[in-house]
Amino acid sequence: MDPDSAINSGSFSLGEGDPQLASLEQRVQRLEDAVADLQETAGKPQVKLGPVPPESIMAGNPPENPSSEATTPPRPPWLLVDILNEARDMVRMFFDIRYRVGWFTRLFAIILLAMIFTSGLWFPLAYLPLLGPPFDKILDVLLAFLTYKILSREARRYRAMKARSTSEGFPG
Description:
The protein is mainly alpha-helical. It has 8 helices and no strands. Helices cover 66% and strands 0% of the residues.
């Protein structure tokens, strides 16, 4: 048989005598099979499977749309943008006529802000000669953090109220 006719007919084998060539021929054959399989499945619609929620497993219900559950959650905003959004909501919640700020938040925000502004007068460690000002500033930072935590919890309630009202059809 002529080698050229054997190659054209597809019956030619390189690995007849050399084991390395036989190994190479097997790998090429596997690659050709894999490419053929990919070409066959390219025309078929692909179904992406994602994690199944545990409650549907317990209830015995398969997910309705598995491709929507495989999406990645949105990334959180940058820290500076998040701080500005929260500060905006803190200011807006006091002036929104549809939202009533809790008395605890109103009272403690006013008291803590007054304590921050007057801490140099009533904080006993503030009168120490060299250590007084740093102790006073440490107290101011702690009081400001407490004020921020109280206001951020109220802002979270405000955002939830805005989300509920916009989902019910009221303008946000």
